Amino acid sequence: MYLKKIKLKNFKNFSETEFDFSPKLNAFVGKNGVGKTNVLDAVHYLALTKSYLNYSDLQNIRFEHDFLTLEGNFVKNNTEDVVFLSVRKDKGKLLKRNSKTYEKISDHIGLYPLVMISPYDLDLIKEGSDVRRKFIDNIISQSNKEYLSSLIRYNRVLSQRNTLLKFFFQNQTFDRNSLVIYDHELILLGELIHENRKKLIHEFTPVFKEYYRLISQGNERVSIHYKSALEETPFEELLASSITNDRSAQYTTQGIHKDELELKIFDHPVKKFGSQGQQKSYLIALKLAQLELIQKKIGHTPVLLLDDIFDKLDEYRVEQLIKLVNEEKFGQIFVSDAHPKRTAEILKRINSESKIFEL
């Protein structure tokens, strides 16, 4: 599977442009601020229906314009699909595949799997647990429609329960039976989500460790631990025992929305004890493991986006990364780099079909 070409209109800093891609390796080079990352983000948008960098669709519309459009041609199983996405300030987002509009945009997720590695991903290591939960959820959702549907429904019911708790607090009232309605569905959905996350981490951890070993010469011991209150206590009991805290806090204080992923190096948090190079190696290993697991589950190799990831890596780690992504199990790759000479040298060493785009 690969992206054959893409057209951008009023997307971020681009007025109107298009690119024809190599099915193997594509590199965007140029000074900072010219839009290298934006092209990669457009690829991400078409594959996963949203920007990698912005939460709001409207933020991606070019300044002083009212809409953006993206169109891409994906080749999969010798069949070419045309994906069209538009965002309009007055009408919202529209997504089409082969001229047919999706009733639910979430139905598109998983058709064109993709993994992106970006400097912004350091949030995965440095920020709060919600970022790491999203990472787990992204891996599972690209290959499991039931999980994605359950996750969407869980978050909706959780929001409704929290609204009710806030209403109780503000009006100095309480009706336990009203909460029970939401509790039943949260328990059903939450237990399903928990089991899928636990299974995923069990499969994911040895793959991640192997990638980290290959990148770092195998001299650094790393580990991942999935932490969930549901490991110790059934969800039903958690909700029942936390009701007093929930009423006081005005939100649901226990559940799978509080799960954590502990990332460690030498048994210490990598965000505190890892060097910049170690943190970047850790991040790359996480993402390459993500790609491999998605590939195993759906039978298609995800497109890999490498956004400005060579900085902060020593020569050996860069060399190992180059060797890894040149293996046959990796499919189409997009790279952005502010150093054209370095990119040209990397492409020579990879020795595969490639294109360089200077912006």
- Which strands sit side by side, in order, in the main sheet? 2-1-4-5-6-7
> Separation of termini?
26 Å
Percent range for β-strand residues: 15-25%
Task: Note poorly predicted spans.
Answer: none
Q: What is the highest CATH level, the class of the largest domain?
A: Mainly Alpha
The count of strands amounts to 14
Global mean pLDDT = 91
Helix coverage percent: 40-55%
How would you sum up the major sheet? 6 strands, antiparallel
Would you identify the CATH architecture of the largest domain? Answer: Up-down Bundle
Spell out the CATH superfamily of the largest domain: RecF/RecN/SMC, N-terminal domain
**Topology as H/E string?**
EEEHEEEEEHHHHEHHEEHHEHEHE
**Computed CA radius of gyration, to the nearest angstrom:** 22 Å
Task: Describe the structure in your own words.
The structure is a single chain. With 359 residues, the protein is of the alpha/beta class. The chain folds into 2 domains: 1-113 and 302-359, P-loop containing nucleotide triphosphate hydrolases (Rossmann fold), CATH 3.40.50; 122-299, Glutathione S-transferase Yfyf (Class Pi), Chain A, domain 2 (Up-down Bundle), CATH 1.20.1050. Helix content is 45%, strand content 23%. It is built from 11 helices and 14 strands. Strands 2-1-4-5-6-7 form a 6-stranded antiparallel beta sheet, with helices on one face. β6 and β7 form a beta hairpin.
